[in-house]
Amino acid sequence: MKKASLLGLVILLSVGMTAKSQVKIGFEVSFKEPQAHYAEVEMNISGLTKDYVDVKMPVWAPGSYLVREFSKSVEGFNATANGKPVKYEKVRKNAWRVYSAKASNVKIKYRLYAFEVSVRTSFIDDSHAFLSSTGVFMYPDGMLKQPSTVKIIPFKTWNKVSTGLEPVAGQAFTYTAANFDILYDSPIEVGNQDVFEFMASGVKHEVAMYGGGNYDKERLKVDMAKIVEQGTAIYGENPNKHYTFIVHNFSVGGGGLEHLNSTVLGASRNGYASKEGYNGFLNLVAHEYYHLWNVKRLRPVALGPFDYDNENYTTNLWVAEGFTAYYENKLMRRAGFISDTDFVNQLVTAVNNVSNTHGAKVQSVAEASYDAWIKLYRPNENSANTTVSYYAKGEVLGILMDIEIAQATQGAKSLDDVMRAMYNQYYKKLGRGYTDAEFKAMVEQVSGKSFTSFWDKYVNGTGPIEYEKYFGYAGIRVKDENAGKSIPYLGLSSKKTEGKIIVSGIARNSSAWVDGINVNDELISVDGVPVQSSIDLGDKKVGDTLTIRVLRDGIVRDFKVTLKAGTSVKLVAELDGNASDAALKVRKRWF
Predict the structure, then answer these.
(1) For residue range 432-473, what is the model confidence (pLDDT) as tens digits?
(2) How many Å from the N-terminal Cα to the C-terminal Cα in the chain?
(3) b/e per residue, 400-411, with b = 16+ CB within 10 A?
(4) 308, 56 in Cβ contact below 8 A?
(5) pTM of the model as a whole
(6) β-strands 488-489, 262-268 pairing
(7) Strand, helix or coil at 284?
(8) Alpha-carbon separation of residue 47 from 21, 53, 81, 197, 310 (angstroms)
(9) CA-based diameter of the chain, in Å?
(10) H or E element: which one contains 96?
(11) Domain locations in the chain?
(12) CATH 3.30.2010 fits domain 195-277
């Protein structure tokens, strides 16, 4: 290429970059009818030079791997350019084309209906508004890297806004985001929430409590700080300037969703007084806060930069979510909220549950990660027979891998070292996500041994969990109390619906499965005795035959069901008081 041509190209690129950088995007959100669950959104775009602009709404929310079609809640879309109405049309399910005729200023208005209670979807009523940003704000196509401002105009009876977004100095309830990835990772709570703060690891943390509850703010300040500090200790730094917890307290609540410097938690408003309820809340805090490092920064390569129009596939959600489920237990133990015995029992229970999941013998955890978009969030009556949760199986793999690393290094290293090394290498140094092969390579580097058989059996395969071997490395005895027993197992679950006992699930290869009972059958009687709630096998033995009468599609049918022996395990654990010094080193490092 000639020098003159190169110079011309540089000039053209510079002009193009300057023109793009002059685009300004601002939003204003108000609430004329919150009691009817509506928000009014105004989007202002200036500095445009094309004949039209496409504005798009994401179809999913990062951290929740399901296409939710947020654009379905949009109505009343209209647009003006330089103050005059212009033509617009919908060009795909989540995109509108505004024919601005090169006008420099475009204003778009739309109403948003929000009435779904969850940590990942917006909800508005007369008491508050929770704005899950991916389902609220549109972005101009091709401009995800552009900054934007958001001004919130609270309803007349509201006086607070809580969010992880950066405030604009001197402008009430006005915030800025450096790009749309940050905006979409910043939920917003608007209302009269109870707000308190605490410092931990050098970072100011704000807690916004909606819905009341029997929580003790002073106690939470101390205990939540302990969790923050334990997570920070693993990675050696806390990457935030400030952090926001948005907590929704309902009569019965649960669940959480992680964000870059905030999280949304669901809780039961009167659950804080009991030990179980309080620790359950702290477990949730620990899980979502650990995500600050694992998945929000250290992430599978497919999870960023995001494609907001389509599914983003990865086989590594077992690390992103499963390891986080495991680490919530580690943070709780290290912060002093549970004992060593409780810690071990919780982890053995996790192994027990996966071992008894029929789908764990069918679907690998890598497949479960990849198929999250079509299976985890859309279970049916047969899901337990065909799928495994990457949360549950990933937690178990975290346990096994942690112990294996401690065993291989004689107590010198643990999974903590792997996670910290991955964070430093891929987030801090390379600024990108990791592949499955890169994660495996780091495990092998830290442990000094091959993990190929581990990956073949547990990650990409469906092999049985060798719980005795792994826990034995740490001087913990685990046994199956069902071993050697012949326990009759019918293999059906049922629920009472409008006074009827309806079959809700059939376990693969169980007696009910083999002999023809179906989901949605109404249970009438067993050996002539009416079914009142559920089927009690009483003193029945393996090999006995039952006559089960059901009503199926309006027709009464009798099935002869021969009882088979159950295959479930019942694991119990105890710390070996006579464990070897080598096992104690492994246990100490693991704990």
Answers:
(1) 999 999 999 999 999 999 999 999 999 999 999 999 999 999
(2) 62
(3) bbbbbbbbbbeb
(4) yes
(5) 0.94
(6) unpaired
(7) helix
(8) 9, 11, 12, 40, 28
(9) 96
(10) strand 95-98
(11) 20-192, 195-277, 293-483+579-591, 488-565
(12) yes
